[in-house]
């Protein structure tokens, strides 16, 4: 089983709130906006998204953790700071749904008129390195290609709109570096299936979608295809160093948001398959890493808090279960 080791500690990120409810979340929207796949978007739509994403890398920090930080750095820092409390349990899906929404709003604040887009890595699993998302002009640039000593980082990306971007963080530590990637050939017996594409094929994802219980589905998606994409883009075979899509500060790479919009899309597809799944939410909170293995955290509830660590207002799980609610109002 592929799995990303999330090590940053923040226990109790998701905790019970009083019984306050967002009124907008209880209402439905009449005209949900369509989130498109990158391959289905027009060139103009892709360029508009990229222009806004570059803008986010230049806007001043909202958190103010470091004088050189940008708004994009804030996303990486928040994800790293909350790392332990937002992975490997039920809150993984609603927290990242909210996180993508916060990023979508940041794009729109930069003049973008569209919605978040997704990379359909299922459709591209046969040859992920040829996916449209890696185009140097209408995409995010390609694999790290630089030479020389890059410290603990993989080679830098040398083409595309983010070739000059220098993420500030590695985890929550200040370690400014060039945006880096290290594509992995996960299946050396088949040159057309690199970036661990053989771990997120249509057949594998269809099997993930057969899970009828929420936490079984969440676990299969998170530890399977979701983790495989992180590894495939960022742990190139034989390099011994990792790219920016892992570990905890993975939003350093702007492709993170297309990856997680796809994860959200798969959750949406799973929910649409059975309307009783709209508010399906079960599992247990994570205990601290040093807790006895036989102990189990308290059960999750729809009234649990989704902390954004100051990047945005905290949310409530129930507000992020139905994409057709007024506060989300989108579909795929």
Write the layout of secondary structure elements.
Layout: H1 23-26, E1 33-34, H2 43-56, H3 71-81, H4 83-86, H5 92-109, E2 169-170, E3 173-174, H6 202-209, H7 214-234, H8 255-272, E4 305-306, E5 315-316, E6 330-331
Parallel strand pairs: 1-6
Antiparallel strand pairs: 2-3, 4-5
Helix pairs in contact: 2-5, 5-8, 6-7, 7-8
Number of strands: 6
Query: Which percent range describes the beta-strand content?
Result: under 5%
What's the end-to-end separation, in Å?
29 Å
Question: What is the CATH superfamily classification?
Answer: Di-copper center containing domain from catechol oxidase
Strand order of the largest sheet: 1-6
How many domains, in number, for the residues?
1
Any idea what the CATH architecture is?
Orthogonal Bundle
Number of helices: 8
CATH class assignment: Mainly Alpha
Largest sheet: number of strands, sense, barrel closure: 2 strands, parallel
Order of helices and strands: HEHHHHEEHHHEEE
Structural class: mainly alpha
Question: Outline, from the CA principal axes?
Answer: globular
Using the coordinates shown, work out and report the CATH topology.
di-copper center containing domain from catechol oxidase
Radius of gyration: 19 Å
Please tell me the overall pLDDT: 90
- Parts with pLDDT < 50 across at least 5 consecutive residues: 1-21
Helix fraction bin: 25-40%
Keywords: Copper, Metal-binding, Monooxygenase, Oxidoreductase, Signal
Signal peptide: 1-16
Domain Tyrosinase copper-binding: 87-104, 253-264
Protein name: Monooxygenase
């Amino acid at each position: 089983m592929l799995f990303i080791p999330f090590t940053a500690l923040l226990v109790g990120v998701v905790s019970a709130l009083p019984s306050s409810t967002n009124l907008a979340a209880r209402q439905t929207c009449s005209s949900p906006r369509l989130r498109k796949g990158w391959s289905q978007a027009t060139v103009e739509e892709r360029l508009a998204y990229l222009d806004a994403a570059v803008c986010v890398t230049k806007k001043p920090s909202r958190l103010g953790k470091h004088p050189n930080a940008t708004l994009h750095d804030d996303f990486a820092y928040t994800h790293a700071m909350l790392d332990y409390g937002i992975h490997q349990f039920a809150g993984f899906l609603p927290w990242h749904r909210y996180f993508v929404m916060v990023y979508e709003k940041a794009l729109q604040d930069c003049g973008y008129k569209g919605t978040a887009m997704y990379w359909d890595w299922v459709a591209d699993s046969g040859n992920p390195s040829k996916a449209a998302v890696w185009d140097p002009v209408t995409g995010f640039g390609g694999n790290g290609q630089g030479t020389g000593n890059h410290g603990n980082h993989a080679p830098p990306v040398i083409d595309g709109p983010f070739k000059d971007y220098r993420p500030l963080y590695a985890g929550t530590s200040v370690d400014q570096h060039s945006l880096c990637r290290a594509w992995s050939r996960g299946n050396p017996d088949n040159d057309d299936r690199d970036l661990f594409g053989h771990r997120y094929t249509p057949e594998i994802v269809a099997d993930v979608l057969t899970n009828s219980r929420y936490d079984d589905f969440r676990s299969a998606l998170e530890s399977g295809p979701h983790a495989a994409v992180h590894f495939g883009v960022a742990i190139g075979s034989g390099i011994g160093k990792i790219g920016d899509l892992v570990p905890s500060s993975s939003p350093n790479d702007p492709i993170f948001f297309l990856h997680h919009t796809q994860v959200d899309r798969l959750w949406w597809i799973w929910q649409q398959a059975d309307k009783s799944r709209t508010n399906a939410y079960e599992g247990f909170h994570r205990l601290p890493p040093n807790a006895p293995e036989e102990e189990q955290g308290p059960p999750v509830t729809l009234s649990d808090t989704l902390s954004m660590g100051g990047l945005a207002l905290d949310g409530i799980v129930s507000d992020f279960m139905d994409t057709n609610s007024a506060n989300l109002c989108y579909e795929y």
